[in-house]
Amino acid sequence: MSIPDGPDGRGPEPPEGHRVTLPDGANPAAPARRRSLAFHRNFRQLWIGDAFGQLGAQLAIFALPIYAVQTLAATELEMGFLTAAETVAFPAIGLLVGAWVDRMNKRRTLIAADLVRAAALAVVVVAGLTGHGSVPLLIGVAVAMSCASVFFDVAHQSYVPGLVGLEHIAEGNSKLQATQSVAIAVGPGLGGQLLRVVTAPALVAVTVVTYLVSALAVGRIRHDETLPPREERRPLRTEIAEGLRFVLGQPLLRRIVACTGLSNLAGSISGALMAIYALRVLDLTPAAFGAVGSAGAIGGLVGAVVAERLSRWIGEGRVIALAAAAWLPAMALTPLALPLAEAGIPASVTLVVGGGLQMFWIVVYNVAQVSFRQRLCPPALLGRMNASVRFLVWGGMPLGGLIGGFLGTHVGVVETLWIAVAGTVVGSLPVLLSPLARMRDLPGAAPTPAA
Predict the structure, then answer these.
(1) Is residue 382 a part of any domain in this protein?
(2) Residue 279 and residue 430: Cα distance in Å, rounded?
(3) pTM of the model
(4) How many domains does the chain have?
(5) I need a labelling partner for 192 at 20 to 30 A (CA). Which of 81, 206, 222, 438 fits?
(6) How far from the centroid of its chain's Cα atoms is residue 65's Cα?
(7) Where is the composition biased (Basic and acidic residues) (predicted)?
(8) Among 336, 346, 335, 343, which residue's Cα sits nearest to residue 284?
C-alpha cells in the first residue's frame, strides 16, 4: 500500500506503528503519536472543497423544490419527476462511470464535476431572473447535475483511501460526514433567511459560487496518483462485471447494499413530497421549513462526531444493525407531525426531533459501512466497487421519486409518507436478520504497511 503524503504535503510521514530510527536518548517503547488529518495538507484541501460543495448542494436541494412549488406551481407528479431526475444518472451510467473513474485522474474528475454543476445551476439563475423558468427546465438541469454527481461521488470515495491511507479512512470519513452534517444544518436555515430578501434564482446563484470555490480548493491538492497502465486495460464490460462480482460476492456487503437500497427507495418516495407536505399540508413558511431542516441536521453532526467512537464501543458490525433499527421510529415522526399538530404539538417541533434522530443514525450507519467497504476492497477496484454500490443503492431512487409523485396524486400526501415508513421497515430487515447484528469486528482491515 502506498503511504499518503505527510501533513505538509512535501513527502510521506511514517504510518502509525511503523518503526523508525530514533535520535539518541529517545524512548523506543513510546507509541507513535497519531496526528489528526486536519494537519494533512492534501486532505485539508479536499475537506475545504467538500465543505463548500456540500453547502452549495444543500442550498440547491432547499431552493429548487421551493422554487418549483411556490413560483412554478409544480404538481405532486411534477415533483416526483424532479426527484427522479436528481438521481437518474446513477442507474443509467453509474456502472460505466465506475470503470472510467478507475482509469481517470480523480482530482481532475472532481474539479470537472464541480464546474459542470456550477454551469448547470447558472442556467437556472439566468432563466429565473429573465422570467423563463419552468419545471421541465429544472428537470433537465437536475439530470445534468445528476450525471456530474455520479462522477464526483465515485471519484471522491475512491480518492480518500489513497490520499490518507487505509489506517486513517475512518477518521477521514467521519470528518467528511461531519462537514456534510454541518452543511445540512446551515444550508436550509441560511436559505430560508435569504429567501426573505432574495428570490429563489438569486439564492441558486450562491450555489454556483460555492461549487467554483470547491473546484479551486480541490485544484490545490498535490498528490500523485498511479493509474493503471493503458496496455493493462480490459474491455469495459469485463471491468464493470468485476466490480459487481466483488460487491455481490461479499455476503456482509451484499446485506448492507440491500438495506441501503431499499431504504433509499422508501426515502425517495417521501422525499418527493416533503416540500408539498411542509408548505401546503403543514402550512410552514419557507423560513420555518429551512429552520426545521437546519435544526434536525444537528443530529447528523453529532452522529459524525461520535460515529468512530460509537463503532469502537459497540462494535463495527453491531453499530450498523443498531443504526438500521434506530432510524425507523425517527422516520415515523414525519407523518405523525400532522396529527400531533392537531393535538397541540407544533409540527416544526415534531419534524425537528424526527429529522435530528434520523440524521444521527444515518450518519453513524454511513461512517461504519463506507469505512468497512473501503478497507475490504483492493485499491485498483475502488472506483468500480463504489460505482457498483452506488448503482445498487441509488438505482431505485428515481423510481421512488416517481412512485411518490404518483401515490401523492392518487392516494394522498400523508398516506404516501406512511407507505414510505413501511418500506423503510422492510429495508432494515437484511441487516437486522444478518450476522452483522452479532459481530463486533468486521473483516478486511488492512495490515500495517511495510517499510
Answers:
(1) yes
(2) 35
(3) 0.67
(4) 1
(5) 81
(6) 19
(7) 7-21
(8) 346
